[in-house]
C-alpha cells in the first residue's frame, strides 16, 4: 500500500488524515528530540559533565548525522522511493535509539545513542514537506506547513512534561525508555494507513535532477540565500530557548525538574501552537495580496520578540519570566511556517525533498548543531568570570537573544527579490 501512488490523496478528507498523521509523526520527532533537555541536570550530576558537554550531547551529537544524512535520504525520496516508507523506517529507528539512550552507562555511550537518534530523525521532514507540497496548492500551503510545524511546540511540550514527570518518579533512564518505545507502534500504523501522494498534480514521472544542479539553481536565487541565513540564525535562537531555558529555571529560580517540565512545557507548547497556527494562517492570507508579506511577517515577529526575551532574562521571579517568554516563543513559531512554505514555493517539483533537506542541513547545523555547544561554552566562560553557573547561563542566553535582530535583517533582505525568484508551479 505504501509504495503506490494514491490519486485519492488529493481529496480533502484523506489529505486531512495524511496531514494529521504527518503532524503526529513530527510530534514524536520532537518528543524524542527535546526530552533530553529536561533531563540535562540529572545527567550532568551523574556523569559529572560541564555545560559544553551538555551542548555537545544535545546539539552536535544529534545534529551531525541528522543534517548530513538528510540530503541522501531526500535524494531517495526525490528519486522515486515511497516517502511514506522512508518516514516509517526513520520513525522506528529514532524511537528505538531514544530508548537506548536510557541504557547508556557513560557519556560516550550516550553520545553514540544520540547520534543514532539523529540518523533516524534525518528521514522525517524532507519527505514529509515534499508530501505536503504535493497535497496542497501554493495558496493553501502556508497553513498546511503551519499545521505540520505544530509538531515542534506540541512535541516539545509533551517531551518536557512527560520527561519531567516520569524522570521524577522513575529516573531519567526509565523516562527515555518509556517515551521512546511507543514510536515503534506509530511507525507501523503510519506504514499501514498513509498512502504515497501523487507527485505534484502530474500523472507522468517527474524528471530527476542531480543534487549539484539542484543546489546551484537554488543558491543562485538571492531570496533563497537570504532565507537560509535568516532560518539558520532564527534556528540558533529557537534552539537556545528550547535547550537552555529548562536549566536556566532550575539554576536561577530554584525550580525542580518536575516543576519546569509542567510550567515550561505548557508555556512553550501552547505559545508555540498559537504562533504556528497564526503564522501559517497569516502567511496564506497576506501572501495572496503580495508574496513579500509572507516574509515581512517574520521580520515583525523577530523585532517583537527581542524586548520580551530580554525582559524574561532579567525577571525577578519564575512566574514573570514565563509570562514574558510567551511572546518570544509564539514569534519563534511564526517564522517557521514562512520558511517551510517559501522554501518549497521557490523549488521546482523534481527537487523538493532535496532542497528541504538542504534547508534542514544548514539551519539545523547552525541552530541545533552549533547553537547548544556555543551557548554551553559561553555559559562555562561567563560562569568562570562571574563565579555563578546561573549568571553564566543568563549571559549566554543574552548573546543568543541578539540573533532576533540579525535574523530580522535577513528576512527583510529575502523579501526584496521574492516575487522575481518564485517558480511557477505545474498547473
Write structural notes for this entry.
- By secondary structure, the protein is mainly α.
- It has one domain (7-200, 210-421): MFS general substrate transporter like domains (Growth Hormone, Chain: A, Up-down Bundle), CATH 1.20.1250.
- 81% of the residues lie in helices and 1% in strands.
- It has helices spanning 12-38, 40-47, 51-68, 70-78, 83-101, 107-121, 125-135, 138-149, 151-170, 172-180, 182-193, 211-219, 222-253, 257-287, 293-314, 318-345, 352-386, 389-401, 403-415, 418-421; strands at 5-6, 196-197.
- Strands 1-2 form a two-stranded parallel ribbon.
- Helix 3 packs parallel to helix 6, helix 3 (51-68) packs antiparallel against helix 17 and helix 13 (222-253) packs parallel to helix 17 (352-386).
- It is globular and about 55 Å long.
- The two termini are 27 Å apart.
- The model is unreliable at 1-10 and 201-206 (pLDDT under 50).
